[in-house]
Specification:
Distance between the termini: 41 Å
Strand order of the largest sheet: 3-4-5
Strand content: 15-25%
Order of helices and strands: HEEEEHEH
CATH architecture: 2-Layer Sandwich
Helix content: 25-40%
CATH topology: GMP Synthetase, Chain A, domain 3
Shape: globular
Number of strands: 5
CATH class: Alpha Beta
Oligomer: single chain
Length: 100
């Protein structure tokens, strides 16, 4: 059984930025998902700020959630701040709730 990008995004949708209270997918923090060899995955993500005190926790939570996908192989997480996150990257629903 090969893993799909949709499987990975669904798992990442269960990872929350506890300071803001929204998941990393809705916030637009996931910059890319690359599948290799049908079940290895590399996730490129950012944070709302480079000074996020929960950075390590969020990356580990994301790695753990993706690792729980049935049939998943190796999970690599890449943290980047290029381009820097901005509120416009969040979903319409998140921006509406936050009054942006």
């Amino acid at each position: 059984m090969s893993v799909t990008k949709e499987d990975v995004m669904k798992a990442l949708g269960e990872v929350y930025d506890l300071e803001i209270g929204f998941d990393v997918v809705s916030l637009g923090l996931i910059y890319g998902v690359e599948l290799e060899n049908e079940n290895d995955v590399k996730v490129k993500m950012t944070l709302t700020t480079p000074m996020c005190p929960l950075a390590g926790l969020m990356l580990e939570d994301a790695r753990r959630k993706v690792s729980e996908i049935e049939g998943i192989g190796d999970v690599k997480m890449e943290l980047t701040f290029d381009p820097p996150w901005s509120p416009e990257m969040a979903s319409d629903d998140v921006r509406k709730i936050l009054g942006m």
